Amino acid sequence: MPQKPRHPTPHPDASSWLAPPYEYEFERLPIDIIIGDETIRKGLEQGRDLDEMEKNWQEELKGFLAIRKQYLLY
């Protein structure tokens, strides 16, 4: 009988993040590189709601999508 997939929730503790180096980066945490910014990691560590954090980047996303649109070929 197949088992249900496990979805572990990482502990919001700075020590739980993988330490550098990652690829060729020796200063920043790998999670910050993958996500693109340290603010999301810090928000998660503080226990902030992800939906609330997402609202903070919606204006920037709208601007990106507007710029991106002129470069789409299809």
Q: Overview of this structure, please?
A:
It is a single chain. The protein has helices at residues 30-35, 38-45, 50-56, 58-69. It contains four helices and no strands. It starts with 29 loop residues before the first helix and ends in a 5-residue tail after the last helix. The chain has one domain (14-69). The protein has 74 residues and is an all-alpha fold.
Distance between the termini: 45 Å
State the secondary-structure class. Answer: mainly alpha
What percent strand?
Answer: under 5%
Radius of gyration: 17 Å
The level of helicity is: 40-55%
Question: What is the count of β-strands?
Answer: 0
Give me a quick take on this structure:
The protein is mainly α. 45% of the residues lie in helices and 0% in strands. It has one domain (14-69).
Secondary-structure map:
Layout: H1 30-35, H2 38-45, H3 50-56, H4 58-69
How would you describe this structure in keywords?
74 residues, mainly alpha
